Amino acid sequence: MTRVLLAGGGTAGHVNPLLAVAHELVRRGNCQPNEIRVLGTAQGLESRLVPAAGFELDTIARLPFPRRVDLYALAFWPRFAWAVVNVMNVLRTNKIELVAGFGGYASAPAYVAAWLMKKPCAVHEANSLAGFANRLGSRLTRFVATTFSLTQLPHARRLGMPLSRAITHPGKKVTKTSARTHFGLSAKKKTLVVTGGSQGSKRINATVEAIAADVVAIGWQILHIVGHKNSLPVSPPSGYVGIKYCDSMELALGAATMVISRAGAATVSELQVMGLPAIFVPYPVGNGEQEKNAHDSVSAGSAVLVLDKDFTPDNFRASVLPLLGDDAAIARMVASGKNLGDADAAGDFVDLMLQALDEGTPQ
Question: Is 363 a domain residue?
Fold first, then answer.
């Protein structure tokens, strides 16, 4: 058995692949749950999700990388050095043999601590554009994995996104009929599943609410996950089912004929694995990573990209509605998406971690 530290957190995009790998280590018998420790922050989603998954969480200070020269920047490096010392203590106290990082605030100190203590280390980058932590980590180890083809990191190999086995290897096959019935939808109608993520998207929600009657009129039905902070439509048309949050996305996606969503790395990867055609509406804030996350699917022909500013009711009626009415085009999108997904990415990353362990300390 191997004692492992998994570092990452802040957002679901970092925490969920970390937990997928943790569960895979246990499932394969590489570790017992008590041999896996997770390094994160007290403010991130990991503070709730990691203990709920049955793993021990160690926390360090949340240290965003400074973007300009100011008092925070002057204080950053001493605070970063202290975080590295704290991680080294975690490694020493728990006799950690192997470190793996998934980006986020906790990963950068973990990579440096592993390098200083000559511990084997592996890096996984979820997004098409790597953040500071993984850009640093990829220079301290040769064992680097990415999700998307556009990601540029030293030593990188594309393995895909570690996902929950509920998506990649469901114990009980989810059929369209059972999934649609679960949400009170017609078992036989083509289904448009819409999601803006757990927070929801005001832009997507407003447009879908405005065109719901048009979609229903051409024989489709809608499952719309609006986000827990958003309101449901007051008078939706028959054939529209709205919910605030879905804790069983394998069922929601199992009901889908097509999906409209943001282009977060996990969402894109889930749709690739499940072979679902998509309309991606990338989140417009940030460094443009979501547009790049969608690149492989759009290039293959299994998805269409619509910029947030263009996702309006008029443009939907002009471009998306005709696509929904074209069964042959949708069939081509499904065929184009075959073999895009990486259902075994969690296991492949575990193999990379074990390769790092077998080949010894970083060079």
Answer: no
Q: Coil, strand or helix: which one is 223?
A: strand
Q: Which of 43, 101, 45 is nearest to 356 (CA)?
A: 101
Partnered with residue 224 across adjacent β-strands are 194, 242
- Residue 173 carries which DSSP code? P
pLDDT of 17: 95
CB 307 within 8 A of CB 288: no
Tens-digit pLDDT profile for residues 280-305: 999 998 778 999 999 999 999 999 99
**Crossing angle of helices 71-93 and 107-116, rounded to 10°:** 60
Quote the CA–CA distance of 271 and 171 in Å, as a whole number. Answer: 18
Q: Residue 148's domain spans which residues?
A: 4-163+343-358
Please compute the mean of the pLDDT values over residues 241-260 and round it to a whole number: 93
Provide the whole-model pTM: 0.91
What is the CATH number for 206? 3.40.50.2000
Residues 155 and 185 placed together within one structural domain of the fold: no
pLDDT-based confidence at 347, cuts 50/70/90?
Answer: very high
Does residue 226 sit in the same domain as residue 329?
Answer: yes
